[in-house]
Prior knowledge:
The structure is a homodimer.
Chain A: H1 9-28, E1 33-34, H2 42-46, H3 79-89, E2 96-98, H4 103-116, E3 132-137, H5 141-149, E4 153-160, E5 163-164, H6 166-175, E6 179-184, H7 198-205, E7 215-219, H8 238-244, E8 251-256, E9 268-271, H9 274-287, H10 293-303, H11 306-335, E10 342-343, E11 352-355, H12 361-370, E12 373-374, E13 392-395, H13 402-426
Parallel strand pairs in A: 1-12, 3-4, 3-6, 6-7, 7-8
Antiparallel strand pairs in A: 2-9, 4-5, 8-9, 10-11, 11-13
Amino acid sequence: MQAYASMTKEQLQEEEAKLRRIYKEYQDKGLKLDMSRGKPSAEQLDLTMDLLNAVDKETVMSAENGLDVRNYGGLDGIPEAKRLLAGMMDAKPEQVIVCGNSSLNIMYDTVARGMIFGYLGETPWCKLDKVKFLCPVPGYDRHFAVTEHFGIEMINVPMSEDGPDMDMVEDLVSEDDAIKGIWCVPKYSNPQGVVYSDETVRRMANLKPAAKDFRIFWDNAYAVHHLYGAENGQILNILEECEKAGNPDMVFEFASTSKVSFAGGGIAGFAASPANLADAKKSMTIQTIGYDKVNQLRHAKYFKDFDGIMKHMEKHAALLRPRFELVLNTLEKELSGLDAGTWISPKGGYFITFEAVEGCATRIVELAKQAGVVLTPAGAPYPYGKDPKDSIIRIAPSYPTLEDLGLAAEVFTVCVKLATVEKYLEK
Amino acid sequence: MQAYASMTKEQLQEEEAKLRRIYKEYQDKGLKLDMSRGKPSAEQLDLTMDLLNAVDKETVMSAENGLDVRNYGGLDGIPEAKRLLAGMMDAKPEQVIVCGNSSLNIMYDTVARGMIFGYLGETPWCKLDKVKFLCPVPGYDRHFAVTEHFGIEMINVPMSEDGPDMDMVEDLVSEDDAIKGIWCVPKYSNPQGVVYSDETVRRMANLKPAAKDFRIFWDNAYAVHHLYGAENGQILNILEECEKAGNPDMVFEFASTSKVSFAGGGIAGFAASPANLADAKKSMTIQTIGYDKVNQLRHAKYFKDFDGIMKHMEKHAALLRPRFELVLNTLEKELSGLDAGTWISPKGGYFITFEAVEGCATRIVELAKQAGVVLTPAGAPYPYGKDPKDSIIRIAPSYPTLEDLGLAAEVFTVCVKLATVEKYLEK
């Protein structure tokens, strides 16, 4: 195929006319397809149905420490659930607190504690004139929604294939004590699938922030969500690296089983230093008498240990790989050599990132919508929904059936081509 | 028995010597008994074991609205769970949001929203110099812990057998716009078991607070926790009464199945006006992608409807009644006519309130502790842990076995007598 950049105006016009015909044909089909949602498919959820029988009326309802999981108590989680999440987070069980089903809720609560009470005796952020967070971009829209909700100013930090731009991160946090945090998805980042390099993790752990209460929000959301084996997703242990660097209190790590067991009924937790755990528990003991320990026991009995989780995740990968490959192959087949954008082939996680020609993302999403294919809104992976180049589109291949996904990917490529040709014709 | 008040000093000294001998005998037994915890017994938890089989690997995992409960979505709860909690709260299903397992956590989050974001566009409380809550006393220590944690000043309001002193409540809230809330347990109040009279509920709903963002925190914790039938625990519908009074947004009602199904694995929710629900959801949609809907479905399938809950609660009552009666009979037998304190026979809830002679509560709890019987700390049912008369002791009869409870109650009465005689001898 000839690259659009090398076409004459006439060739581009001819191409546009052809693309409009094809686009119209898709529009006439009245499609209703969705590649917007990073959620597991029904087939994936079916993988974990036996979890529901892991605890039943015959089960002895005591945790390893003798606690009756049906009753009050056990604020920080039962030991076997701590061990399970510790395995996922590469943490020690004693570094872990197990909460309810949503790691996002734990992150929200952790930011809220910074706002209202302050960490480890520091001034609550709500008493300060200005609070800022660093936001590696593109990133996870719900992280940015939390910081925006609390009125925290967000600063974009570009991502490379090794993680956030650490030169920029180092400069900013050492200079500005209003910067209180950074959002990180260190493994198979949302949306690019970037795995932070060892150097990135080490530099992160060795930050010298101006603010004593600066925290790394290490959202290990895809800790075990490999598509092609765990060897592609090795990251250094941030808790250990922070300790080594003399910054033991600088990180909160989060994880959940939302995409391991059930998105609507998993368990979630966080890991941190002894001082941070004690500080968090001061609020948690006021906030609740304890989280759902029956579900913690259910997960511990079903998965047994970290190996059990890893074996289970291979089944998820077997369902996800064909979906990712179908989209990637369609992009390759339809867009290769056209100068109409680039994309990343991730080794894990839940997304494919498409980088359109600058200024085309919003138009592509709009065209797709008009043809019955819902995509994540352009701009969503950026703070305030503003992609400065209007080029990043997050594709979520997990939820549709293979048939729907194939069709949606075809429609997507037509929209990409059409928007790109329109753009070249403008110039 | 002769009342202590009418004894001569010599008689009192003789009584004291006798009581010290009895007390010493109990001490020598090396008892380890506990009447401090308002939590269900293992027998009660056993009542609900079939809940664990209500959802299993054969279950169709769709809610009534078609939502796959295993997946993300459904922020405000599945319809059948809303209906279940609506029944408990005497609310309409559309007035209800179902959350995780802990109603305390919902109350905490609700106060936190007032602090950080403000209700319905009002100034966030953290921006104000002073925020106050009214606290009917004696009351629930964990309510007071929440408000204390947020730095909210607490004002004691005396309880009568009809509920809080409404003259005082009306005067205070109409005069002082720093008063932003009142904690209420309207049915079988913690600890006294008071059921708010119709007049109290109506006056509450008709308050004319100086603060637009004043809210009644209506913790209907014992909504269905009758000991002698539902007819003893009828209260007016606060949501309806607030609507009638032109104050639809003035109340948040809370409830959970913690003492219906499992304290460590139930479901909880809240009910409020459309405006309050929409306002709460603005934060909730940032805070979480959704609560555990698998457990919501499990509860809905097991209990089916409000009648199912009411029938189940009769089984709880059958286990709890003998415990309450054992303690009450022991108090009657040992303390009647002694002028050593009074007590309330509740018709529901989880506690018996003992009102000692002024200045004796701390001493009684201390004596009991030294004899191996743990009681809720004196002062706990008051803000800041300070009982101005040092007279209220909360007895929790639910958790111990009947045998242990009988012994603990005997020890308790000896401690009451001894502390009272000591007190009379001081005078």
